[in-house]
Amino acid sequence: MSRRIIIIVLSFLFGGMLAAQQKGIPSKWTFHSVNQFGLLQGESKAAFNLQSVNGFQYNNFFAGLGAGLDYYKYKSIPLFAELRKYFGKSANQFFVYADAGVHFVWEKKNNTDYPYLSAEKYPPGFYGNAGIGYKAGSKNGMGFLLSAGYSYKRVNDRQQQDSCPFSGPCYLQTNTYQYDLNRLAIQIGWMF
Q1: 134 near 94, Cβ under 8 Å?
Q2: d(CA 87, CA 99)
Q3: pLDDT at 160
């Protein structure tokens, strides 16, 4: 299952590369693919993430849809929309960005510590990201990216267990735990 998810995400990453290579009629609307690798640091140990955002730029505004891999605390796949605003008209520009969407946990927990749990599920949770960055680019729109920001994801952990008090009738008890994971994100990438 995890191998299929990784193949789907990588296909999405490289699909944007192929679409960006198409030559068409020049216009103010330009297709771009933003591919980034980063480190996430919060209360837990540091972890890495990958992102690919594919969308269109009009003047200094960029909007696109993205997917990625997030390995912080719980391995997950975020799917999100991104907005960017570039400042200036030169090839080298500062920018601000914001992402919002959902993420899907694809990690299975080993319940050897809690053998009484009969099932553990992770419903989709909120994913968000915002920050500032710098693009060292060329006149054709390609460029090297460096950014820093704040990243957030909420993990909903739903645990079910069988409960048989005093050998009476058994029932299924469900507990839901929410974890708010606040992280600092530093990313490098390439835009084409």
Answers
A1: yes
A2: 18
A3: 75
